[in-house]
Amino acid sequence: MRKMMMACCSILVWGLVACGEKKAETSQDQKTEVEQTAKTEDEVAAKTDTEETVDEPNDGKSAEPISLSDLQKTLVKQTLQVPKSISDPKARDFAQVFCEKYPAFGANALLLKYLQNPKAFNPKATVSMTLSTENAKIVDDRPNGFLKCEKYALFDNQDDETFEACRWMRKNGHSLVGVFMHSSNDAGLNHHAYAFYDYDPATSVMTPDKDALDAVAYIIEEFGGDDIVIRLPQKGKDLEVESFELRDGDVYNSALFTLKWTGDKFK
User: How many CB atoms lie within 10 A of CB 181?
Assistant: First the structure.
């Protein structure tokens, strides 16, 4: 009888130990599973955080403020399509196509509003006019194929912005379209972007013009980078290159160089 009781106790103890080991194994498995789940969630969160903090360059198509240096990288390779319904596009048509493509620059957006509906912008709009408001000035010189929009800063953390566009007729029936954008602030920081396109009337496509782009890029590099302003001609056909300097809150421009128009290109 005693031996039988001892045997029963041994079986009971063994059973309790086995159950304890099984429970321990289950707890360990659950712990491992929880740790793996937590690790996976952490990895997903880390990946999401990384993806959310990556800043893509603004190519000028969004409404976010644009870096002109970022935009310049796009301008040298991006073609533009003029609506085929416009059989004989003028400078203002080219400017509208450009501003619709790149509205992120403040002066572009302002000029676009005017071009889309001049009478709504100013009931007294005429064929050739200069319009001034509290923080802007628009020059729409249709006879000379020239547009300019100056947007003035209203607050200290804003930049003054300028957009210019004009058109040259080429001997082969194509057009050369020029665009220049410039921003500056009270701290004396200047930035610019420029574009030149060959417009083919057969395809209605504006293609970046390598000769004009290279000529201007060389001048800018030689004479001072961001402290350079390219003056597109309102009258005449040559490009004027000026230095831009801010001293005691006043802007000083000095003539540096003239790029002569030959009828097909600059030299």
Answer: 28
- Residue environment code for 99-133, b if the CB has 16+ CB neighbours within 10 A, otherwise e: bebbbbbbbbbbbbbbbeebeebbeeeeeeeebee
DSSP secondary structure letter of residue 93: H
Question: Strands, E, within 72-117: which ranges?
Answer: 80-81
Query: Which residue shows structure tokens 């080429």?
Result: 170
Question: Going by C-beta distance under 8 Å and a sequence separation of 6 or more, which residues neighbour residue 130?
Answer: 137, 138, 139, 140
pLDDT digits (tens, 9 = 90+) for 106-116: 999 999 999 99
- Residues 127, 128, 129, CA angle at the centre, nearest 5°? 115
The arithmetic mean of pLDDT across residues 227-247, rounded, is 84
b/e map 60-94, b = 16+ CB within 10 Å: beeeeebbbeebbebbbebebebeeeeeebebbbb
In this prediction, residue 256 carries a pLDDT of 83
CB 145 within 8 A of CB 167: yes
Task: Say which range, 4-8, 73-77, 120-124, 212-216, has the weakest mean pLDDT.
Answer: 4-8
Strand order through the sheet with 239-247: 228-231, 239-247, 250-259
Output the pLDDT for position 246.
62
Residues 6+ apart with CB under 8 A from 9: none
**Distance between CA atoms of residues 267 and 258, nearest Å:** 9
Tokens linked to 263: 């009828």
For 144, the token pair is 């000379």
Give the tokens for residue 20.
Answer: 């304890």
- How many Cα atoms within 13 Å fall on the side-chain side of residue 104? 16
CB atoms within 10 A of CB 256: 15
In this predicted structure, what is the pLDDT of residue 243? 81
